[in-house]
Hints:
The chain is of the alpha/beta class. 32% of the residues lie in helices and 25% in strands. It is built from six helices and nine strands, in the order ααββαβαβαββαβββ. It has helices at residues 6-31, 38-46, 78-88, 105-111, 124-137, 173-178, and strands spanning 67-70, 73-75, 95-99, 116-121, 142-146, 159-164, 179-189, 195-202, 208-216. A seven-stranded mixed β-sheet has the order 5-4-3-6-7-8-9. Strands 1-2 form a two-stranded antiparallel sheet. α4 links the parallel β3 and β4 (116-121). It is globular, with a radius of gyration of 16 Å. The termini are far apart. 43% of the residues are buried.
Amino acid sequence: MSQPSESDFEQLRDLMIELITAYASLSGERTGRGELDPRVLAAMARVPRHVYVPDEVRDYAYADGPLPIGYGKTISQPFIVALMTDLLEVEADLRVLEIGTGLGYQAAVLCELAGQVYSVEIIAELAEGARQRLTAAGYENLELRLADGGQGWPEEAPFDRIIVTAAPELVPAPLLQQLKPGGRLVIPAGLEDAQELMVIEKGLDGRTTTEEILPVVFSRLITRH
């Protein structure tokens, strides 16, 4: 059986964008995002998702579902990546913190949109895999760190936006502290069978408000917090 060519992957990526657009429309009443930001869709159309998964599942990189990336972790369903990125409302002059680099796919999408991206991964093998992939991609607006994501990245705080790609039971306090007033945090959280994707906004007075978007299933956030 022949391996897909780069042209094949481009066609699959186009189909992925069409499916994301359809899902957004169907779920819009619940998520409030019936049409995703064209910049988000364009970023996902540029990033070769198949590069950011293990070779064993490369043929399924554009399938509608999460995929294993090793060490009990997954790369999220394309629609969920698109939705979370859209909810984050990234602008070109913003500094974004990502918790849970995995093999680097979400970080690559963020690098296409943000001014500066900081990404933290606690599993050394995944962090090294992400570093290799993202370095090869040539992103210069990215800093990677091997550390406990539940502690954030205090030396670089505060951040305009924070996105978490694994689920704690409770939102880690350090992340709320490191979010700039006027900023947004997108995070799945909750007990294993009752996780919700949430958007937390911090007002200019430092107070936070939380909006639940929809039920989700994410890998647990590994943290000492």
